[in-house]
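Progress report, Aim 2. The chain analyzed during this reporting quarter is listed below.
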Amino acid sequence: MGKATRFDIADLTKRYRLQYFVETGTGQAESLTEVVERHPFRGYYSCDWDEIMIMGSRYRLRDHPDVHIAHARSTDFLETLLLWLPRSSPVLFWLDAHFPGNSERDVGLRLPLASELEIIARLRPEGRDVIMVDDLAIYLDGSFDVPLPDELRQWCPKERDIGFVFEALGNTHNVAWYYDGGGYIIATPNEKYPA
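Predicted structure tokens for the chain:
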């Protein structure tokens, strides 16, 4: 499990004029709490499928009225949120690529990243947003600081590549990836789509 604060959020926010923070996979709200406490966005939106995690996260951030945590599938959450979030206001997306439960049989719930990126690209075609993803080791083999445990490989996609990231974002974003921790992807607006 990675943290959004692995990246220089202050610099990204300034450079791309980011105004909202949107996260999939609240978990115990570790990344969300750090972002809320350190970085002033106009609003913070997160979701998780685990109702227990949601209750704990809502309690943890109860003193922050600009934080909204939904109990929803990440794809449903994004489809709804991105229909009304202003397209003229750039967003920092933090997408949690890993499975909410290793035994989850629903591949759309277990591995939603490709669908999440497709939704973002379709509903925010301007390409002004910054998109960060953790748990790259699910999709690629490599020299990760925290390699994927062998027992989890059965839950990974059969095709081990990130071509789907370039399909969704390649026309509007520069895509980079890193092997520290369990691996990260960051997609920033390219020269054609300045902030």
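The chain has a mean pLDDT of 90. The chain has one domain: 4-189. These observations will guide the mutagenesis work planned for the next reporting period.
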